[in-house]
Target: Molybdopterin oxidoreductase domain-containing protein
Amino acid sequence: HEMITNNLYDKGFTNKYTFGFDRFRDYVTGAEDGIAKDPEWASSICGISPESIKELAREYAAARPAALMTGWAPGRTAYGEQFHRAASILAAITGNIGIEGGFVSGGTDQIDIGRIGQNIFLPDMGHNLIHKTEIYDALIHGRSAGYASDCRLLYITGCNMLNQFLNLNKGKRALMSQDFIITHELFLTPTARFADIILPAAHFLEYDDIGQPWIGGPYTIFMHKVSNNTSGPKSDLEIFTEIAERMGIKYYNEKSDSQWLGEFLESEP
Model:
């Protein structure tokens, strides 16, 4: 509101590279619903003084280039996606997208060098994949919403869903909709509290592994374990393998963790 009403935004960039600014301006100024989203309005919600909000808005608008690096945690709350939409809009109306020194979280700043082991042949496990933003909806509604099946048992590894995915309240409903939940964990996380069985998996410091930057980067790291506690928790693969054996599933996995790592490395050019 401070930027728009005082003409502090980048009109050239906004007119050339954005869509829908007129409607956004009408919403912010109150022309749409009669409620101006001004610093006083925002102060009553966030607890920051109107003066501080105005000062921050003016500083950001004037400091071009400016890198708005928000972090992703707010997006994991109810309606948290609106926070990130607002951040992207701020970067856009100030012309801080696509320039050196500018930034908006979620941009295409990754360097794709491929994935370790992508040349290894694996059996076809089907294509019923679900985007992570749709997982809760699939768990709650299943076939009635067009998904491949109705899920009743959830097996979770390597993910604290309630901490990582959008819409915490919907996530809670999704987990409560399941008949049975199994998870691998080191701690009693919010997601693990919903599990019927918690299997203690090894910490990443307790086994050798290969790591790549999860958000993109031109390097790969071989991570040596720092603990040789052979009687401690098992790796995810060891747990899966032992469960498969107990279920009578033949040929599920015939290699150790170290053998798989060696094959991954040998498969790379």
